[in-house]
Amino acid sequence: MATPHNAAKPGDIAKTVLMPGDPLRAKYIADNFLEDVTCFNTVRNMFGYTGTYKGKRVSVMGGGMGMPSIGIYSYELYHFYDVESIIRIGSAGGIGDDIKVRDVVIGMGASTDSNYAEQYKLPGTYAPIADFSLLRKAVEAAEEKNIKVVVGNILSSDHFYNDYEKTNELWKKMNIAAVEMEAAALYMIAARANKKALCILTVSDHVFTGEALPAEERQTSFREMMEIALEIAD
């Protein structure tokens, strides 16, 4: 059934959805990696496509920026469209000293400064983590392709511009590899729905060195991350 945010009909969406934040990156993946593509959503210009990759049916859809946005789209995919796995593929800011621009980072855990988990009324602090089966497949796919990946803890932040200038230094002390804005919510939504989720990131800039990729290259250059995600879709 259609939702206020997704015009897809039952059966339009595959069991695995790749979810970049940028809907134009979803279009790029559909145009350059998938065959027999159909577009199932253009509501709010949050493009969604289904096609095949090496004979496997897979969908790709934008998820927007921030935890409220990916929370809406992932919830609807899991609950209304029978999606089993969502693989977030996005950009991140490097924090660790050993992280470089263009590195691929896989979020084993997603720390957060968000209050997103408050809705679950848990009697403690919840630790959002990836699905291990997807994580293991991603690492194995990267090894087969001779792609170096960093697996570790990432930060899902509510703040792109943070008023407290020492924030990233404090997270760095806790061995956070990179910062982005969506994975923690995705991992929580998946856990609550008893579904699978994984976040694979490409480092587009580094918080401390100042090195950064231009916006155009962020849309199209993250090929290694995209190929890993496509390989593990089933």
TrEMBL record:
Q: What is its EC number?
A: 2.4.2.1
A GO MF annotation of the entry reads: purine-nucleoside phosphorylase activity
Annotated site, Important for catalytic activity, chain positions: R218
Protein encoded by which gene: deoD
Spell out the protein name for this chain: Purine nucleoside phosphorylase DeoD-type
HAMAP family per UniProt? Pur_nucleosid_phosp
- Could you tell me which Pfam families the record lists for this protein? PNP_UDP_1
Recorded catalytic activity of this chain's protein: a purine D-ribonucleoside + phosphate = a purine nucleobase + alpha-D-ribose 1-phosphate; uridine + phosphate = alpha-D-ribose 1-phosphate + uracil; a purine 2'-deoxy-D-ribonucleoside + phosphate = a purine nucleobase + 2-deoxy-alpha-D-ribose 1-phosphate
